[in-house]
Specification:
heterodimer, A: alpha/beta, FAD/NAD(P)-binding domain, Guanine Nucleotide Dissociation Inhibitor, domain 2, 3 domains, 7-stranded mixed β-sheet, 5-stranded parallel β-sheet, globular, B: about 500 residues, alpha/beta, about 35% helix
Amino acid sequence: MSHDYDAIIIGGGHNGLTCAAYLAKAKKRVLVLERRHVLGGAAVSEEVFPGFTYSVCSYVVSLLRPDIIRDLDLPRHGLDLIPLESTFTPLPDGNSLYRGPDADETRREIAKFSTRDADTYPIFGQAMSQIGRIVKPVLGMTPPDLARPSLRAIFDLLRLGRRFGELDLDARTLQVKMMTMSAVEFLDEWFESDVLKAVMSISGIIGTFQSVSSPGTAYVLLHHYMGDIDGAYRSWGFSRGGTGQISLSIARAAQKFGADIKTDAGVARILTDGGIARGIVLENGDEYRAPIVVSGVDPHLTFLKLVGREQLPGAFVGDVERFKMRGSSGKVNLALDGLPDFTSRPGDGPHLRGDITIAPGLEYLERAYDDAKYGAFSRKPFMDVVIPTLTDPTLAPPGKHVMSIFVQYAPYKLKEGPADWKNQRDAFGDAVVDTLAEYCPNLKDLILHRQVLTPWDLEKEFGLTEGNIFHGELSLEQLFFQRPAAGWARYRTPIQNLWMCASGTHPGGGIMSAPGRNAAREILKGW
Amino acid sequence: MATHDVIVIGGGINGLVAACVLAGQKRDVIVLERRDVMGGIAATRVFHPGYSVPGLLHDTHGLRESVIEACGLWKHGLTLHPRRPFLAAEPDGHGMLVHADTSERDTEAYARFQAFLARIRGGLAALVDAPAPSLGDPLRKLVWPAFKTGRALRRLGRRDMMELLRIPSMCAADWLNDWFDDELLKAGLAQPALLGTWAGPWAAGTAANLLFDLAFAGREVLGGPAALVESLVGACRERGVTLRSGATIASLLVRENRVHGVGLGNGEELIAPAVLSCADPKHTLLDLVPIVHRPPDLVREIRNLRARGTLAKVHLALDAAPKFGDREPGSVDRIRTGTTLDDLERAFDAIKYGGWSDPPLLDINLVSLSDPGLAPRGHHVASILVHFAPANLKAGWTAPTKDALTRAVIEEFNRHAPGIADHIVAREILTPDDLAAEYALPTGHPFHGEHALDQLLSMRPTPACAQHNTPISGLYLGSAGTHPGGFSPGLPGLMAAARI
């Protein structure tokens, strides 16, 4: 039977597009199908209110693999990353902590809270970057299958082992601690200032349903230290035009290599026949057949909805069902009439151009988590705020700004059930704005428009099951050779010719495109 | 100046096991115990004239055959009996009896769960019964133990092996939710995962604690921890171990990075080429080693060992047996409170902010039911572990706060066994501060270090000391603060002795 396409990719998010681009680059005829009217999935820019363009979901980038940028020549296709260099933490008592590119200034700022910490800070950064360099190559590798150890798996393990073997005892200890400790305990070994520990620990919980004192979160901390833009470690960036531009640049690269991309093309079902994937059926009933089908949506959606339980081995269905999604965060996007004025650092300045973090103390973060554990959004949430218009004025009319607020915790499963988010959405938005206004009193007067995205909205609008932004928790038992299930971490699935290429596979979420590229590599191996 | 082959510091279970094993190899061994009796926290405690508890902790089911054999305990009166069921209690309700092999609800899932545990026991034993691999070894030395462990795991079959790799980093709540529907059963089963941790059931890594506790569920020592101590003391005496109580250690005698004895509080010096400390690692390395001999790296590492006490003890003398719901008084002796996993989590929440859990989370052992000699005729003793009473209580441990916690515990007990509050003859509370002062536990932690993923195996108590040795030659560590921790009484002591 002849096909129009060699491979069909479900979902036009950045991973699906990356996989498509690599397959197309290898001269395969590829079709990408996106359910929404725009490409990008959760890495998307949209003009939600006239004149105001938002990075609707994910809003900063750090882990996008440099080799992928090179391979796909993304800058030629419109990728332009702007460094994001500072973190500003206002405190309720009128004090604040600012960490920026100037090491001396950062030192002085930290010394306000602890001179010892100010001394330790650069040493810590070096230690983390060192571990980051060791762990980073793991991001690009296909996890070994421990369930069916082959010579190849043993070889892979030995290679990993050798990397570990090259370290001295201190570095090995640090690495083991990183993989097993909580962010707070890990930072406790280095720092004493509550404020510094709080703001540093939040990297460990973004997108997870864990507290900063829950073991395993130190690893996620590392995840955020591995970011590099243009080779500079630990730097974060904005994408000019919003994060959607990243997806679009990858899409253009894919198209240049010959891939076809269709939007408004929601996939209803994956066609299987005798345990082999044959193609897909769209929501409008159209059928596309191809020898390879690649899913760029999360494991729950892929297997429980698009494939169907009855087509899969029972044990695997069990594994997918217990793969934890557990959305824990929401997003509030504001259109502003001017710049917010922080009590602790009035006026405009570099502090507004980086991350603005509302994480005034460890107890604050614990209480935020405690609310969520029992099924309510945090009354005083942790927030990560950016104002991208200060570095990229194209996103709003002159003099106006957009503000992106990442909010945690917002549990998908409310006490009253997920559907009750409909009723609680406004209260959630109010809690966010009220809390932020405690630090910048002029905020409320500036708000022109407000978009509130709860985990329930993320599921409905973006197809993220339970609103999990990473397609599954980044907890230790859901990483590497167990992501999304033991024995199925090599991008293959129990359905022959059906592959996975998104954040629900190794190495997980964030705009890094590594799953998409790794999957393409595995697919092409057998071709 | 007396000379011995080995000096053992601390006459708790680990110290006695180590001494007994070493003496069995014809060495001259002396055990130095600070308190007036041997046994440490496992010793019998008379808390009111006529009323006593057989040790502070309740469980002895982790005792390994290897310890019993190495010390020849069968000859010294050790008797094991099947593990008794516990009651997952409900206030004013019927509750549920959970036996080692059956439960009153979720029966089928529980049977499958126990079958799974029975299958993996061997694989787990391979991990815990072997000395922890050294993190500092060159790779080629790590390959062989890794291969052996891998092979032991492979024997479990694919499915069970992958499960065993998955569970340890999980939270207890997720793991139990995988298996069970019944909230009460899950809450009852989860409690041991929290013993001596700074974590609730939703904290990652707690499944590992639960796994160890459940997988080693062997038989119990008749007479509790105190009976084990008694048997060990008998074995030690037979093998010629010198047991000396009331001996405080002032400092270790160290010369050129080599230990050669200990100095006692009374100025006396004892000489030996090897010293095995079964006192907690922090105390040993930060207090007993003279300051000039403390390696700075080790000091930093050992300071980071987390041993935050979260456990209080309440002992009650009762003139009647408590009645739980509609059950016969005296029909159950082990009772756990908390009816949902969230109850347990809320109990933990309190300590994050420097308070104790309210209501307190209780593990009650009516010790006099199986051993009537612990109380006068017709009377009873309730030994109560109170989870989540922090050493660093914000309000401080004072007479009023101690009294307030005792009252809260009694009230919670009374909620489950109505009327029992009127039958209290005498009571005692031991806060983490009291435990620290009386039993020399670091901030009152019964295991000398929290059971957490980063403090087990090759990391316990620090990577440099995880094989029971220290950078100071001749000085060894053998307390629960070393591998494999407090899950199995005497096993760290046995391993330390093997190392010597």
